[in-house]
Amino acid sequence: MTSFLTLNFNVGVLGHVDSGKTSLARALSSTASTAAFDKNPQSKERGITLDLGFSAFTVPLPEHLREACGERYDHLQFTLVDCPGHASLIRTIIGGAQIIDLMLLVVDIVKGMQTQTAECLLIGQLTCSHMVIILNKTDLLPDDKKQSAIDKMTKRMHKTLENTRFKGCPVIAVAAKPGGPEAPDTEEAQGIIELMQLLKAQAFLPHRDPSGCLLMAVDHCFSIRGQGTVITGTILQGALHVNDTLEIPALKVHTHIAHLVILKRIPSAMQGDRVGVCVTQFDPKLLERGLVCTPGSLSTLHAGIITVQKIEYYRGALCSRAKFHITIGHETVMARVSFFSRTSLSSQSEVPSSGSPSAEEATPDPFSFDWEFHYQEEYLTGKGETEGQEQEQWALLEFERPVTCPPLCLVIGSRLDSDIHSNTCRLAFHGKLLEGFEDKNYTETSLPRLKISKDKHKEGAVERVTDDYTVIGRNLFKKETNLQLFVGLKVTLSSGETGVIEGGFGQSGKIKIRVPEGLKEETKQLLSSSSKKKGKGGAKNEPSKEDDAKADSQPIAIHLNFKRYVYDPQKKMVQS
């Protein structure tokens, strides 16, 4: 006898606070989890969603999926991930968005797009490829103006999405809770049947691969008397089975799977499934949200290197050494950010091209410790050397506390300390994790491998000539400078000669410069003329003030150019 399975399809419900997301999830759902519909006492007290809520409804497998699935599945379960809408909970929203296949963006039809609606839209663009817009609270519109208001808002939404990956996505109008959240349940929700039909039509066979190491995003942990501790969450990759051993990397704890539940006890679960994992000998108070994995498969990082791209709606500058809230994996932590790019001599042609993958298949930009990089005081927003292409840029993130995350995971940088009431985007940049540093002494063990340089320029003037091959320079260094560090570096004179710093001259920071090819005749004449004028005494032969000014206004300048590697412990100066 064939045992049919239920295909799980994760749908995120996102939108501005009070747009009716929880009411919509309740209207759609037939099964609620222990974390559904604002069961948190604080949520009930404040009347808003404070955490991720999970519920589900199941339908017969649609015909278009039956062809794609063969005979593996006979039902389709929509798991609804109800994300909070309040601005202060954006890190929870980002965590919820990373486990979904399709996003429902809920818009209050009376208020239209609001600040957090826009932020949710941006998060959706970074985390999923399919979206449906829900125009909620149509019951608040006058009957005689309802359809025209719906048409107008639908047109506005399509215009908003014109330049996004969701261009042309479906828009549907509903009234999830006529009369508002406090109204009695006697009035039936409007448009829910049509929404269910639309979701069935929009459902697709998501990528599900049971191979590889397990990674599961945990959103709830509680105990059941007589059975042990239950960890609930969504499997992001791999699979798990009864009797497997799990690691909770943030706690450095291993535990054993006693049984698995998806509505009923099952022997195994795989990528995309929402599952309850009953484990032995584990205190539920130790874990509220985080990751569990195959033992040894995740790294705990003190710093990392990411590809970086500014979010176009962020108005602030992205400055190196500034601190941002970094959401990485399923954690949010403060980190200091330093931006850098490849030097112009470090040719892009060194990287073999592998075609142009789709958005879902795209791999992060390549990176190598062998490349030369240039330190940037801030993120560059102009185009790169290749016409019409954004310049490739990276960032070093130095975390205030260690974070546990999978390789190549999504990274989002935000300024969550910005005023939540201002009409500004707080999401600043995004990227993918390329390299991670597990050693807490990474500044000594790993960063010296990172060849990021800063260009330096010093300028002084030739004071006098000592012979045809030597000049004395001034104003290039302070008297307390250790001049030995600069011995052997090349300098250029504004008169065209190239020289080498031989050492200090006296105690005031002056230097002796050797010119191997010798000084030009005109240079010697200019310098000797200036010296004679300054050296002569007596009223008869004393140079006029005009002559002095002329000599001082046209000194021969000394230019010293070099670069210094930011993370070189020796702080050596290098010239190309």
Automatic annotation (TrEMBL):
Residues 542-551 have a biased composition (Basic and acidic residues). Residues 6-207 form the Tr-type G domain. InterPro entries: eEFSec_C, eEFSec_III, EF-Tu_GTPase, P-loop_NTPase, T_Tr_GTP-bd_dom, Transl_B-barrel_sf. It comes from the Eukaryota. Gene3D superfamilies: P-loop containing nucleotide triphosphate hydrolases, Translation factors. Keywords: Cytoplasm, GTP-binding, Hydrolase, Methylation, Nucleotide-binding, Nucleus, Phosphoprotein, Protein biosynthesis. This is Selenocysteine-specific elongation factor. Its cofactor is Mn(2+); Mg(2+). PROSITE patterns: G_TR_2. The lineage of its organism: Eukaryota, Metazoa, Chordata, Craniata, Vertebrata. It catalyses: GTP + H2O = GDP + phosphate + H(+). GO terms for cellular component: cytoplasm; nucleus. It comes from Electrophorus electricus (Electric eel). GO terms for molecular function: GTP binding; GTPase activity; translation elongation factor activity. Residues 524-555 are annotated as: Disordered. The keyword Cytoplasm applies. Translation factor required for the incorporation of the rare amino acid selenocysteine encoded by UGA codons. Replaces the eRF1-eRF3-GTP ternary complex for the insertion of selenocysteine directed by the UGA codon. Insertion of selenocysteine at UGA codons is mediated by SECISBP2 and EEFSEC: SECISBP2 (1) specifically binds the SECIS sequence once the 80S ribosome encounters an in-frame UGA codon and (2) contacts the RPS27A/eS31 of the 40S ribosome before ribosome stalling.
